[in-house]
Amino acid sequence: MIIENIKITINFKEVLKELGFKQVSTILTPPMEKMIKEEIEKAQGLIHPKADFIHFNLTSVTEDTIITDCNALTFKTKYLAKHLSGCSRASLFVCTIGAELEKRIKDYFDKGEQTRAYIMNGIG
What we know:
The protein is α+β, with helices and mostly antiparallel strands. It has 2 domains: 12-47 and 98-123, no CATH class; 51-95, no CATH class. It contains 5 helices and 4 strands. A 4-stranded antiparallel β-sheet has the order 3-2-1-4. The longest helix is centred in the first third of the chain and has 17 residues, at 30-46. The chain is elongated and about 55 Å long. The relative contact order is 0.19. The model has no long low-confidence stretch (mean pLDDT 93).
């Protein structure tokens, strides 16, 4: 079941952290703050989140492999095997914000607007 119409809130302070403004020595100038806020506003219209998930039985969990009963779905990973050891069921959840924001970043780079591309990448 695909989940759509997911509400996304872009937090200005979180974007600043992603862009490296968490350092005390990094100074946010008024023009840069204005540009970041402009890009956040644009990003709101470019982000179209969707998600999907499935539940499945785990038929085998070894040190580095997880075998499921879901259409030969197998994971070769020590990390997940460690965390799913002893479990009999699991769920897989995937999500995306869509391709439009990534396209805008590429467009900015193509136009030589690296600062806006970097900001938009930090938002995404």
